[in-house]
Every structure is written in structure tokens, then in C-alpha cells.
Design a protein that fits this description.
The chain contains four helices and no strands. Helix 1 packs antiparallel against helix 3 (about 50-95). Helix content is about 65%, strand content about 0%. The chain has helices at about 15-30, 35-40, 50-95, 105-115. It has one domain (about 10-115). By secondary structure, the protein is mainly alpha-helical. It is rod-shaped, with a radius of gyration of 28 Å.
């Protein structure tokens, strides 16, 4: 019985992208022609201009972090799949007894493999 293959990482499962989207929506709502800065200001927070820009900056930061995180996850996934494939090939060779004779010439190995024979 073979192991179940790992699922390909999906970008929408990365929380950084969700945080970037939420911060972007809050920043849009805080623009002067929509809700204004008073709409996104926390109770008790001191009044300062450019609050919406802070949220835009946070959204960009979370987006960049999400991209880096997702690229690293994809890289790790490809390495994991490659290691599983190489270990599967090695275990199949051990199970069937198909081992190449390293002392033989490459042409002899190719002929022996094409004929389906194992010494």
C-alpha cells in the first residue's frame, strides 16, 4: 500500500493573504471620500492624519510576507515530492531485486534491463 500523496499548497490557505485583504478593505473604508479616518480609528486612539495609509502599508507588508511564505512552501513541497519519488524508486528496486551491476559496462546494463532480466 502506497502513502497518500501530499496535497499541493494552496495560496488561499495562507493567513497572510487574508490579513492583507482585510487590511486593504479597512484602508479603503478609511479613505476620506468613503468613511473617513474617524470610521477606522480605535476608541481612545489619538488623532493623527494618514491613518488609512498605515493600513495600506500593513496590507502591502502582509502581501509581501504571504508571497514569500507561499513561495517557500512551494519550494519545500517540491523537495518533499522529489524525495518521496526517489525513496519510492529505491524501495521498489529493493523489493523486486532489480539492482544494476555497477561493475558491468553501461551497455550491458541497458541490454539486460531491456530484456527484462535480472542476474
Amino acid at each position: 500500500m502506497s502513502a497518500r500523496p501530499a496535497a499541493v499548497p494552496a495560496w488561499y490557505k495562507n493567513t497572510y493573504f487574508w490579513l492583507a485583504a482585510i487590511l486593504f478593505m479597512i484602508a479603503l473604508y478609511g479613505l476620506p471620500f468613503l468613511g473617513g479616518e474617524n470610521a477606522i480609528r480605535d476608541p481612545g486612539q489619538k488623532r493623527e492624519s494618514g491613518l488609512s495609509l498605515y493600513y495600506f502599508g500593513g496590507a502591502v507588508l502582509m502581501l509581501v510576507n504571504g508571497l514569500l511564505s507561499h513561495w517557500q512552501t512551494l519550494r519545500h513541497y517540491r523537495e518533499h515530492v522529489a524525495s518521496l519519488e526517489s525513496s519510492t524508486v529505491a524501495s521498489e528496486e529493493l523489493a523486486t531485486g532489480d539492482r544494476l551491476d555497477l561493475s558491468a559496462a553501461p551497455e550491458e546494463d541497458a541490454q539486460r534491463i531491456s530484456k527484462g532480466g535480472t542476474d
